[in-house]
Structures are given as C-alpha cells and as structure tokens.
Amino acid sequence: MEHAVSLDEEPDMKFRRNAKIDDFESAAMPHIDALYRAAARVTGDRSEAEDLVQETYLQAWKSFHRFQPGTNCRAWLFKILFHVIQQHRRKWYSSRGHETDELLEQTVAYQPPVAQHLKDEDVLAAFDKIPQQYRDVVLLADVEAFSYKEIAETLSIPLGTVMSRLSRGRKLLRSELAGFAEGYGINKSNANGGGK
Amino acid sequence: MSVLEFEQGYCKRIRVYLDSYVNNELMVETTHEVLRHLDGCEACAAELEAKTRMKNVLQNAVMRNGASAELRERIKHDVRRDAAAWWSPRTHVMQWALAVAAALVLFVGGWSVLHSFSSRGPQPRQAEAALLRAEIPNAEILNIGLADHINCAVVHDQQDKRLTPEQMAERLGSDYEGLVPIVREKAAGFEMMMGHRCRLENREFVHLILRNRDRVCSLVITKKNGESFPADQTADIEQATSISTYRARTRDYEVVGFETRDYLGFVVSNLSTSENRMLASSLAPAVHDFLVKLEA
Q1: Which among B20, B62, B89 has CB closest to A9?
Q2: Residue A5 at interface with chain B, using a CB cutoff of 8 Å
Q3: Contact B283, B218 (CB under 8 A)
Q4: Is position B217 within any domain?
Q5: For A25, which of B23, B76, B87 is closest by C-beta distance?
Q6: Which chain B residue lies closest to A61 (C-alpha atoms)?
C-alpha cells in the first residue's frame, strides 16, 4: 500500500506556503468566536455550528487570494458563513420540509414562565423562537454590531429589508421576553405611550 | 389638534427612528432631532432605554459562548492539509501528470471508448486512489473504504441505480444478504439504492449505497488483508457507540471506520461530520454484530 508520506519540499516553496498560512490565520482566526456564536444561534445546535464554521474557514482559505488586506476580514468571513448556512438550509428544508412563516409566527405567541431575573438561557430561548429571517438580522446588528450596509451585503437583502426586519425582530424578542422582563425593566415603558 | 395629540404624533415619529438611533445609523440632523425630543420626553427616553437594555442583555447572553479549542485545531489542521495538497511538489507533478494523461486520453479517445464499452465493470483508478491517500494523513486505512465509495458510487454512478431488495440479496450472495434488512432499518431517512459486491485494486468489497436526495452514503465492507486500525490513533477514536470507530474527513467526504476480527467496515458519505457520525453510530454496531456472527 502506498503511504501518505510527504515529499521534501523546496525551502522557498515551504516558506511561501507557511507565510500564506500565517497571513490567513492572523487575519481570520481572531474572528472564530464571533462566527461560532452566530452559527450556534442560527442553528441552535453546537455540533452543526462547528461544522458550519469549519466549512466557512476552509472556503475562506480557498478564496483567501481574493481577500484584500486592509478590508474588513470579519465582514468577509460572515458573508461566507451565511452563504454556507444558506446552502445548509436548502439541504435541510429539502430533506425535512420547512416551517412556514405563519407557524414560526405562532411560536412567538408562546409566553415564557414568569422569572425574577432574565437569565442568559431565558434570553437565548426567547431569541431562538424568533423566525430565522429576523433572528439573522438582530444577531448581526445587536450582537455583532454590523452596520445596516454590512448586514445587507452579508445576507444579500436590500437595506430597507434590514431595517424592517431589525425593527420587527426586536419587537418579537421583546414580546417573548415580556413575561419575565419586568424585573429588568426591559418592558417597563408602554409601547403606545408618549407625550411630555 | 390639541397640544397633547400633537406631542403624541411627534413621539410616534421619533420612535420610528429609535431602532436606527440605537445602532448609530441616523443622519446627524435626525440624531439631533431625536436627542432634542428625548431631553423633554420621559416616555420616549424610557423606550430608548428599554431598547438599549434589551440589546445589551441579548449581547451579553450570546457573547458568553465561544469556539472550542478542538474546533480551532480542526480548522488549522484543515488549512495546513489543504495547503500541503496544493503546494507540495507531489501535487504539481500530479497535476502535470494528469494534464499529460488527459492529452493522451484525447489522442486515444476512440480506442478507449470502444474498449470501455467492452469492459465488464468498474476499473481501479490508481491516480485517484493516490490522491485520496494523500488527503488523510495517518488514516490510510480509512482510504480503503473511501476509495471504493468514490470509485463505485461516485465515479461509476452506482449511486444513481436502484435495485429491489431481492436483486440486492442476489448480488450480495447468501453470506451478506442479511445486511439488507439491517441497513434499511438502521439508516432511517435514507433510501437503499444498491447492494452488490465490487472490486477495486484486487480487493473485493460488499457495498451498500444509501441516498437521500443529494446526500449519498456507502456502507463498505471488506475482508482484512493484514490491516488493523492503529492503536495510537486515539484522537480519531469515538467511544460514543458500543464499538470503537475511527473517523476522518477529506474536503468533500466524511469517513467512519470500524473493524471486527476479520473485517473492516466503513460508513462514507458527503454528509457533515455530525450527520455522518450519527448515521454511523446507528449502522456500525448492528453491522459489527452481523459480521461477528458471520465469523463464528
């Protein structure tokens, strides 16, 4: 049987290869936590999130020659991540069928039990109930602090859609949290109130 | 219009801006307009505070999770392996060799086509098998199963053929026909397309192909020819099932291997790592038991 023994490389070739790997790792690896967090929230599954991030980095490495140093590497990686996520969603939907928006909207009506404090798991549980298209935008805007323009480019949607989904997504999250948000003052103002 | 109604209408207008204000996305003039209003409107200021607080609460909750050290290592390993494959002299030599081979194929195309029609089944692809070996360092044994999956299911399109259970039983022979109901039961969500015996590089395989749309999976079994999974590959050993399994990933394929006294078994697919692992954890123990009974 043939063995996978690597041949001796020319020193120059080895140097160039290692330099390129170093460039990639120093530019891309600092963002792995952000990518993983986003993938985990989008999929709701740690193992699947790891697969998505792994695939994202491999695709990023393969197209690293197209990345322009000095531009926003984080935004570039997120665009690849959401492209990978989109591909996986297509596979997932085609094999299992997908929930309609109506069904997802119904789940938002679920009221969580009253809690004294907003625990992280409560917040995440509420966030996971938001329909995916709103969740993506809220995640990118509120957690990862991307600009509207960057979100529009990452998700390939118009700027106006980013704004409307962010507004709607925040309302849905607030509605989810309403049952136990009083203690933290999140819902203390009346949405219909106003006036001096 | 009363003063109060006027102010409520103005609040409504300002609140439309609040989401963008929180994200610092407003024009300078509009920002000033919002700030002026917030100075004198407690209700809108409270609404802004609520929005900001909710954003912070969400940010804090999500930020607590980070990537594992294992994932970082997996990614670095992927990058180095891919870099080695593309930059190594072997690859360049192989690319040239493939280019020359392609030219030769063009020259002798007619002759090759005629003879390929007369051939009686899948032929070994030495160059392809060599590439596969290079892709999984320290896991060459897994390439035995991977190579048969690529050669038979993918290259020779056996993944697109569909046999009845009776036809599969006939092609597998009396020793292995019992695998058909086992695999059908354990591979929920997949359709069994093919069960047959095939040959690659003078090695015989029992090969069952499963499919779910574009997801293709092979159960590949072959008799040992002196091979055994190395004991020092602890990183690739999974103990989630009742038997030890070994896994590796190429760019496009995921492989899980297991063994009995006389057999090597492989679950090879284009699924993700977690999906293939899940499928293998269902298939491998049952197939392992079947093979052990066969050995008795």
Answers
A1: B89
A2: no
A3: no
A4: yes
A5: B76
A6: B79
Tell me if residue B199 falls in helix, strand or coil: strand
Q: Which chain B residues are within 8 Å of A138, Cβ to Cβ?
A: 58
Q: A9 and B87: CB-CB below 8 Å?
A: yes
Q: What is the pLDDT of residues B164-219, one digit of tens each?
A: 888 898 889 999 999 999 998 888 888 889 999 988 878 899 999 999 888 899 99
Q: Which residues pair with B211 in a beta bridge?
A: B191, B216
For B21-59, what is each residue's pLDDT tens digit?
Answer: 998 899 888 999 999 999 989 989 988 888 888 888 889
Interface contact B58-A58, CB threshold 8 A: no
Task: Give the domain range for residue A90.
Answer: 13-97
Residues A86 and A162 in one domain: no
Residue A25 lies in a domain: yes
The region of weakest confidence among A128-137, A145-154, B197-206 is B197-206
Taking the Cβ of residue A13 and every Cβ of chain B, the question of whether any pair is shorter than 8 Å is answered with: yes
Minimal Cα–Cα distance from A101 to chain B, Å? 23
Phi-psi region of B232 (alpha: psi -120 to 50; beta: other; left: phi over 0): alpha
The residues in A 127-156 lying below 8 A from B, measured between CB atoms, are: 127, 138-139, 141-143, 147-148
ipTM of the complex: 0.76
pLDDT single digits (tens) A57-92: 999 998 888 888 888 999 999 999 999 998 887 766
**Range scoring the smallest mean pLDDT among A117-126, B28-37, B96-105, B281-290:** B96-105
Domain of residue B37 covers 3-63
Measured between CB atoms, which of A1, A9, A33 is closest to B67?
A33
Distance from CA of A189 to the nearest CA of B (A): 6
| Residue A136: both structure tokens together | 């993506």
For residue A80, being part of any structural domain is answered with yes
The alpha carbon torsion through A129, A133, A139, A141 (nearest 10 deg) reads: -140
Where among A97, A116, A134 does a domain terminate?
Answer: A97
What are the distances in angstroms from CA A28 to CA A34, A40, A63, B12?
11, 18, 12, 43
Say yes or no for a CB contact (<8 Å) between A37 and B20: no
pLDDT band at B130 (very low <50, low <70, confident <90, very high): very low
3-class DSSP state of B138: coil
Query: pLDDT per residue over B59-68, tens digit each?
Result: 988 988 889 9
- All residues of chain B having their beta carbon less than 8 Å from the beta carbon of residue A93 are none
Query: Do B275 and B144 fall within a single domain?
Result: yes
Kindly report the number of other CB atoms within 10 A of residue B254's CB atom: 24
Please give the single-letter amino acid code of residue A48: E
